[in-house]
Amino acid sequence: MSVEPRHLELFEEARRIAPKGVKVEYTDGTIIMRPAPSAIHQRNLFHLRSQFDTHRPEEYLPTENSDLQSPQAAKVRNPDLTYLPDEAMTGEQGIFDADLALIAIEIVSPSNPENDWVGKLRDYAVMHIPLYLIVDARDSTVTLFSQPNGAKYHTRTDQKFGETIRIPEPFGFDLDLARLIPYV
What we know:
By secondary structure, this protein is of the alpha+beta class.
């Protein structure tokens, strides 16, 4: 299944007219628009990114809020943070092939947690993104999904804020969750 041209046109139009700071995604014939994240969201993302940046493969760069597309799966998703090859990030494009992403990292939105826990969990597996890290500041948990095969991930690891969680290769490090804070 691929994104139909008319759906891609609607998606592009939604991206064009969306106010600054609004995320636009496409899945299963639906365009999803979300507002800019909170300060806690941004703070937690910073503390995650600083650790991932230290352990990223040299030829990969971090990118926040970049569109990942999978024409075969008819999906366009926009993770809070991902890592893409340096060579893929050379043009004016704002949309990248999902097969290039090493990981998708999401900070759960308190207004729409189902998007991260249901829709993106399904979509990132279908899009063959090898690692999916969900940080849920509603209950101070971090969950890592790995080994995608078809419509699901086969491995799940859960930890609480204050602990560590092992991030497998190509990053290969223990992510320290001590600096993450819950929503108030």
